Amino acid sequence: MITVVVADDQELVRTGLCLILEAQDDIEVVADVADGGAALDAVRLHLPDVALLDVRMPHMTGLEAARQILDGTGSTRVVMLTTFDDDRYLYDALRAGASGFLLKTSPRAHLLHAVRSAAAGEALLDPVLTRRLVATHLRSPRRLGVGELPPALAALSPRELEVFRDLARGATNAEIAARLFLAETTVKTHVASVLRKLGLRDRIQAVVLGYESGLIVPGDGHDDGGPTGL
Q: Which of 4, 52, 192, 195 has the fewest other C-beta atoms within 10 Å?
């Protein structure tokens, strides 16, 4: 059973989310609250698999609640609820370790997929949207010289660095396997090793690090493809 805490200060939205989630045999809403502080308390009390947090809430924002939840020792995954005009918050949420975001206008199926994916430890954000957020909010990423390696990536082997480059561009395991002529199981092993060595929670944080380190630069010709899953 997937346990979920739902936090949104709009009662109608919160009630609708709970009704959709509770109608599923494999999902249980253990608490629904109206502000970030109450969300933090509910997560600490119930230790849910997933916290579904509105970005903008009174008393404590969803972003601040997410930071504190993800800074803790628990295994709760965070999905941010947002509207189209909340982009300025989302980059900070991704850096904090959120598994992605869900638009409040998303279809029911997307909500259920988001919760189940987060509970399974998967990233949720479409890589095209991830790249848009990073490119918009990252200030002046430094272009590296030819052959220059960011110090943060020095722990990676040459093969792992190749995998990281594709990972940071939002490629799926299947796409990385095809480009590097590797089995998907081998790619999966490399991805796990890369995330572990770099201390990253998931693939979304790999995208953020790729841009912040200067290894991936907006408009480098590799980030203009269609949406793919993370």
A: 192
Residue 57, helix vs strand vs coil = coil
Whether residue 11 is found in the same domain as residue 118: yes
Q: Are the C-beta atoms of 82 and 37 separated by less than 8 Å?
A: no
Ramachandran bin of 48, using left for φ above 0, alpha for ψ from -120 to 50, beta for the remaining angles: beta
We report the CATH number of the domain holding residue 165 as 1.10.10.10
Q: Under a CB-based contact definition with an 8 Å cutoff, are residues 20 and 32 in contact?
A: no
d(CA 15, CA 104): 13
Chain-centroid distance of CA 17 in Å reads 20
Q: How many domains does the chain have?
A: 2
pLDDT for 30-44, tens place per residue? 999 999 999 999 999
Is residue 61 included in any domain, yes or no? yes
